[in-house]
């Protein structure tokens, strides 16, 4: 028995008040454990399925997110899982060698899924080096499920998965639509941080073929001349648009609007509020999506 399994059994005895769990072990066959991929510009997945058990085990890389391990299972409908952890083990031909001491606990357990986020990259790298994946799940009915999955047939799929993951945008759609560029008084030029954010944004736009419009809305606070504020808000939007164009974004997608101080999001009575109002917001419109109100 491995040290990690001994540790898990000890924890289970604590969780179950000293009542030994009933183990059910699935050992994946080397020739029949097939790994597949689903690859998109913002999401890369490598997975294997165990139809008889209703399992799907996936490693998922997404834009702006750390690598995650996600396990879907029909077991949850019969007996909810209350504890789970995963580890890497040696392939059988290396069983006499010391195995990597890498175990990770589930970050969340849902009705039909177990999600791991912390430490998944390390587990994945050990698997790329030849280790196998094994995970343990304890049900509310005191049944312990142990699943061991070989990696002997996944080399070809990991190449395409890693290529996909290495090309992911570093920012995702949700983060983009929360971007806001703020300015000091009477300023419209971008600082270094803002320029870097626009490079990330450009990379995303150039990879997402579903983007049909980029709305760039410039704003000012309400202090000063309204005509000057209108021009200033337009300058701010123009500067951002030009930076996107300089980073190969199609200019035909861009719609620029300057609003002056007509749409404040905070009180102009305080310096903090005025700073929030001096802004440019960017929203991406995708095919078949409706635009929202101004930000």
Describe this protein's structure.
The protein has a six-stranded antiparallel beta sheet. The protein folds into two domains: 164 residues, Sandwich (Immunoglobulin-like), CATH 2.60.40.2540; 114 residues, OmpA-like domain (60s Ribosomal Protein L30, Chain: A), CATH 3.30.1330.60. The chain has eight helices and 15 strands. Helix content is 29%, strand content 30%.
Give the structure's gist in a few sentences.
The chain has 295 residues and is of the alpha+beta class. The protein folds into two domains: 3-166, Immunoglobulin-like; 173-286, OmpA-like domain (60s Ribosomal Protein L30, Chain: A), CATH 3.30.1330.60.
List the topology elements.
Blueprint: H1 3-15, E1 22-27, E2 36-39, E3 43-50, E4 55-62, E5 68-73, H2 75-78, E6 81-89, E7 103-105, E8 108-109, E9 113-116, H3 120-128, E10 132-139, E11 143-149, H4 155-166, H5 173-176, E12 180-182, H6 192-207, E13 211-218, H7 226-246, E14 254-258, H8 271-277, E15 279-286
Parallel strand pairs: 1-11, 13-14
Antiparallel strand pairs: 2-3, 3-4, 4-5, 5-9, 6-7, 6-10, 8-9, 10-11, 12-15, 13-15
Helix pairs in contact: 6-7
């Amino acid at each position: 028995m491995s040290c990690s399994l001994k540790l898990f059994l000890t924890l289970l005895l604590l969780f179950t008040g000293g009542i030994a769990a009933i183990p059910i072990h699935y050992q994946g066959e080397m020739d029949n454990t097939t790994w597949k991929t689903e690859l998109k510009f913002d999401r890369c997945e490598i997975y294997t399925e165990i139809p008889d058990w209703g399992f799907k085990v996936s490693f998922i890389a997404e834009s702006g997110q750390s690598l995650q391990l996600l396990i879907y299972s029909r077991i949850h409908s019969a007996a909810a899982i209350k504890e789970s952890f995963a580890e890497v083990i040696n392939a059988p031909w290396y069983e006499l060698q010391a195995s990597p001491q890498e175990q990770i606990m589930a970050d969340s357990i849902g009705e039909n899924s177990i999600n791991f986020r912390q430490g998944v990259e390390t587990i994945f790298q050990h698997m790329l080096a030849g280790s196998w994946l094994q995970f343990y799940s304890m049900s509310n009915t005191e049944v312990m499920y142990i699943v061991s999955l070989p990696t002997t047939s996944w080399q070809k799929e990991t190449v395409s998965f890693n290529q996909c993951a290495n090309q992911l945008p570093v920012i995702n759609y949700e983060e983009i639509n929360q971007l806001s560029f703020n300015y000091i008084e009477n300023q419209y030029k971008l600082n270094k941080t803002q320029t870097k954010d626009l490079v990330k944004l450009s990379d995303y736009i150039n990879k997402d073929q579903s983007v049909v419009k980029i709305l760039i809305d410039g704003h000012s606070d309400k202090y000063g001349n309204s005509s000057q504020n209108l021009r200033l808000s337009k300058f701010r939007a123009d500067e951002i648009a030009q930076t996107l164009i300089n980073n190969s974004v199609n200019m035909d997608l861009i719609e620029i609007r300057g609003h002056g101080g007509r749409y404040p999001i905070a009180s102009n009575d305080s310096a903090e509020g005025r700073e929030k109002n001096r802004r440019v917001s960017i929203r991406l419109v995708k095919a078949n999506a409706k635009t929202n109100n101004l930000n």
